[in-house]
Amino acid sequence: WKTWEGAGERFERWVEGKTGQPLVDANMRELKLTGFMSNRGRQNVASYLTQDLNVDWRLGAAYFEEVLIDHEVTANWGNWNAAAGVTGGRVNRFNILKQSKDYDEKGDY
Question: Which of 14, 30, 55, 93 is the most exposed, having the fewest neighbouring CB atoms within 10 Å of its CB?
Answer without folding.
Answer: 93
